[in-house]
Amino acid sequence: MAAPSVLEAMSRPLLGHLDPAFVGMMEEIKEMLREVFQTKNRMTFPVSGTGSAGMEFCFVNLIEPGDEVVVGINGVFGGRMAEVAARCGAKVTRVEAEWGRIIEPAQIAVALEGRKPKLVAVIHAETSTGALTPIPEISRLAHEAGALMLVDTVTSLGGCPVELDAWGIDAVYSGTQKCLSAPPGLAPVSLSDRALEVATHRTHKVQSWYLDVNLLASYWGAERVYHHTAPVSMNYALHEALRLVLEEGLEARFARHERNHQLLKDGLASLGLEIASQPGHQLWQLNSVTVPEGVDEAAVRAKLLQNFGIEIGAGLGPLKGKVWRIGLMGESSTPDNVEIVLNALGQTLSEAAG
Amino acid sequence: MAAPSVLEAMSRPLLGHLDPAFVGMMEEIKEMLREVFQTKNRMTFPVSGTGSAGMEFCFVNLIEPGDEVVVGINGVFGGRMAEVAARCGAKVTRVEAEWGRIIEPAQIAVALEGRKPKLVAVIHAETSTGALTPIPEISRLAHEAGALMLVDTVTSLGGCPVELDAWGIDAVYSGTQKCLSAPPGLAPVSLSDRALEVATHRTHKVQSWYLDVNLLASYWGAERVYHHTAPVSMNYALHEALRLVLEEGLEARFARHERNHQLLKDGLASLGLEIASQPGHQLWQLNSVTVPEGVDEAAVRAKLLQNFGIEIGAGLGPLKGKVWRIGLMGESSTPDNVEIVLNALGQTLSEAAG
Fold first, then answer.
1. B209–A80: do the CB atoms touch at under 8 Å?
2. Is the ipTM of this complex over 0.85?
């Protein structure tokens, strides 16, 4: 769900994408994104595509054919990073964990032994499993090995702490439709000066013209060199969504996500249900719930949508049929929503059992 | 400008991108795009990025390293196609025409002599110069040489005839923010079965995961396999914009664009101004106007924006400082707008002269 003022922003009359009024808004978006990412990185802006385009942006700019990359894979999105890296010509070392568990720093340490990869990449909040991998220690190990640290924050940004500079993250991407509560369609990204140095001193041209940071820097920078036509309305929405995030305050917003996760977890327990992801590393904004034995999980999801207008996610990959995924992200993370989903789920399950 | 109902559509509450209601809308968008492109191509859908992402979609899917490509270059966007093709590893043969003139079939014929390129690519409506290159003869030559025909219809689609099947176009991309009058952010594309055959029988994987038609086909096709999160609100807007285009009717819409172009041209003549692009091949929706000797063209543009709220384009590349570009696209192509811009331009020029 997006806030009413965010949806309203989408319907504002269009400005030319080089109009001074729109350019002023671009500057404010960059500044607000820096606050939300907790970074001073100059190169912080929204890529004109969805979160997956943000992932591709990071890899195409940082990787050249033959580069070594270590990728943590504990769900759908880690697997996708490995695939995108390979399509950039990277030699990928896969560090795998069971779906629902985190990538442990010790696993990364083992993968780095005797290697000097260009990049270490992990998913912060795995949307497909509900696990939150801690970044600081992995980032330290990556830097010790001389590698850049890349992190996917699609589901974490705006819902739990993401501290680019404090954690030493060199490249990051996110999406607008998770905890920022704007419609999908843009991918906030940020590159450290070190990452930018790599991207601007390449041997080969970036394989994607659309995502080449060397060209985008001039469009989103002071020069305003025409590159593509930015999705104007989407930027209106992101601007308003970021304003709301900062108005609430990051700490207050994170605390709200944590509280509502705890409420849900307690309510699930009283229904005899439990969170499926690794204890101590469970996401607040995406709650993976173990499907009880003998329950037709697809039927439950269909009933929730038909009878209550509630959409919850299915399990993916090895978790298919084994978990439901309940989002409590941004605007949608409210005690009311927790109560509504618990009631609906309780009713549906008792009918199924009845 | 977008129609009020299109802007309104943007602010509708969000649906999950795999929600049955949204999936139904996706089907209608595909069907309406086929009508507007005048094609039966199954593979017709909006790429989740702007027009430039549509360009990249066509090249990354059809080109493999070492493939030969013939590109017509008579403005900014032809040059961009050559650059994108090269980044896919293509060997590019450039067929150049003076900016403001069309690519002549005879030029393409010369370039094809003794060659068997994989692809011939031209810009239908060059937004940077106002020239409209006729496609059918070039397409015939391309097919005779065994090549696929790729056409950029970013500015032409919805403003003047674009007939994919009748003209034998194999790959095409467009944008939403020109004559379709939706906000920027999506790129309608279409591939013929022949082009799709090439894209699905490649030796190398498509270098872009985000734009890989082999993956997108399952997302936009009957399987609905999750790929990325489609920009839901942008699709609402495109759906409503396409509905309006078809409600008006393609023939009526083209006739309206032609009429208003003629009105503008007559009015410009009475101000002593003329269209800069090649006679007989002047775009209706983008009018390139020769800047009179001694006039500070940037000052005129700034005054139009400040005093009248009218944004007209500057000349690009070799036309920088030599032309203005007046858009009369989709919703904006009205007799009122023609009168307003003529009055504003007349007043501004006479003040500058005074």
1. yes
2. yes
